[in-house]
Every structure is written in structure tokens, then in C-alpha cells.
Amino acid sequence: MKIRKLVGKVHLWLGFASGLLVLFLGITGCMLAYQREIEYATQPYHFVAHQNEEKLPPSKLREIADAQLPGKMAHSVSYEQGKASKVVYFSFEPEYYFTVFLNPYTGDVIKVKDMDKDFFRILIMGHYYLWLPPEVGQPIVASGTLVFVLMLLTGLILWWPKNKAARKQRFSVKWGARWRRVNYDMHNVLGFYMTWVAIFIGLTGLIMGFQWFSKSVYWAASGGESLVEFYEPHSDPAQQVSHTDMPAMDRVWLKMLEEHQQVGGSLEVHVPHDDEASIETAINPDTDTYWRGDYRYFDQYTLEEIPVTHSFGRFSEASLADKIIRMNYDIHVGAIGGIVGKTIAFFASLIAASLPVTGFAIWWGRRKNKETKKPERVRKLKVN
């Protein structure tokens, strides 16, 4: 009982320390669960009708998009059946993030979008960084996530029934009782059911938030191997050879096009940002998730493929530990389970957001009870 009381104190003070942050992350997590579905339903510029014509090469689409954003450096060009091609412009210094949507068959510009003004982009920046500078907000969110995981574990200990008579009360909410009892049951019962999903949301958040945690997970999953940090392989300007007038990124695109047509999904070609950069391509057969993407890197002069040793290389060469790291984001948002997984993640986030509120109500109610009982004890002492 002393241990249980100590765990209760730890649970209470952890709740005070992280309650507002958990409430915020839970609500924003709910709003982000169906991001893609909402965007596709409300933003028609994502779609282009299929045509029996050849699509324009990435260099041509980039040239058209460059005219819309003079002075900006293109990052990538993407293709997907039935969707508009996207030319993404992204930079940290100077900071900007734009997406140009184009018809891949005609090159017509459908929309130029400043992603820093996009609703979901703003929401993500709050969810990841609390709208603070990343070096400030990210450690706060990661630390709050760690506290949340500890609260889930201490909550399970407190939930565990003391005896057989109390066991039934731990699995159902007594909706017909007084509001305090309903509130108590919602905190305990819904918290118990939510824990088995939220623990994965929390742990995947820790993988994104702490390098030491992601390295530890990789080490355990790989049987003792170290996680290789992502890096971009370099091209060798000294190996430059003469080609046709076709730009290197177009030649790589043609090289990958046949495989893309066989696999389906999306094809993305990155623009080399300097003379030593490689040309990265990504073929994702399932555009609802990211973990199955096949990432390839090519020398921009010789067009030879450059092998990599980090997790984001060829999917066929990815180890179990690599796939776990790749799956991390898809697990975090529930996309790994399709629309059902997103729905489960939505309700888990919603219940997680409610726990600080119901927990505070439990604490406040007990505190008020102690205050009302104290004068009664004082009166009895005076009478005696």
C-alpha cells in the first residue's frame, strides 16, 4: 500500500507538470489524424484527370515552377497517377517552404501555395515545436512525451484492482452514477483502454524526439548494431562525362519511370542543390504511408547508383531495425493501420487529451472533501 501511495503521488505530480502539454498534444493530434483525407476533400488542386499522353520531365516542370518563384531553389519534383505534380521549394537559410501544383501533361500551373500559411502546416509546427524555435520547442515536447509515457505506466499500476470485487469496476463506466463517479470512471476505465494505443504513440514520439532513444531502439531491434545517421551521398565532379542535351535529373527520371509504372504509387526526383550533390529518387508504392518507400541515389555525372548504409535506402535491403525506424511516423499517426488505424489513433488522442481534465477534477474533488471534513473534526474536538 505504501508503494501504491507513492506511485499515486508520482502520478499526481507528473500530471501537474505535463497536464497542459498533454491536453494540447492530444487535441492537435486528433486534428492531424485525418489530415490527408481532409486535404483531399477540400483542396481540389491536388487532382488532375488522367490523360493518355506523356508527362513532362522534371526539368521542364521545374522550369515552369521557377518562373512562379524567382530566386527560390527547387527541392524536388513528384508524380502520382491522378494527382497534380508538385514542385517543392524548401530552405532553412533563408527560410521558406512553397509547393507549386502543376498539370504534369500540359505544365499548366494549378496553384502556388505558401506552406507556412497552410492550416495543417501551422498545426504541425505547434504539435512538434509549440510554435517556438525548434531548438527550444522540440526538447519541451519530447520531455513532455517522456513524462506522458511514465504517467501511462504509473496509471496502469494505480488502475490495477485491489481485489476481485473491484475488478468489474475497472472495465466499465457507471454512466448512471453521480458526475464525480462518472468522471472517476472515465479517467480510470477510458485511460486503461487508451493506454494500449497511446503507449505506441508516446514511444514513437520519443523516437522522433530523442536521439538517444531512437539509437537505443535501433540497437535493441538490430541485435547490437548502431544506427547510422541519415546522410546524402555525394557526386564526384571529376567524373563528369558528356551526355546529350537532356539534364541529368531527366535521365534519372526516365531510368526510374519504368519501375514506377510497374510498382505504382508515387515517384519523386530530388533536384541536386550543388555540384557535389547526388540525385535522390523515391518510389512509394503506398502513398498512404511512408515506410515502404524505395530510396535510391545517383551520381549526377555518371548516373551510377550510389549505395547508402543508413535506414533510408533500398527497401529490399532494409533490415528489421531499419523498417522499425521507417515505420515510426506511420505508427505515430495510425496510418500503418489504414483508415481504421487513424480512427483508433484519433480516439486515443482524444481520450489522452481528456485525462488531464478528468484527473484534475478527481484531485479537486478530493481536496474539497478534505476541506469540508476538516471543520467537522475541529467542531467535534471542541465539543469533547
TrEMBL record:
Transmembrane segments: 12-34, 140-160, 190-213, 344-364
UniProt xrefs under PROSITE patterns: PROKAR_LIPOPROTEIN
Signal peptide residue numbers: none
Pfam families in UniProt: PepSY_TM (PF03929)
Coiled-coil boundaries: none
Top-level taxon: Bacteria
InterPro entries: PepSY-ass_TM
Key words of the record: Membrane, Transmembrane, Transmembrane helix
PANTHER family per UniProt: BLL7967 PROTEIN, IRON-REGULATED INNER MEMBRANE PROTEIN-RELATED
Identification of the protein by name: Peptidase M4
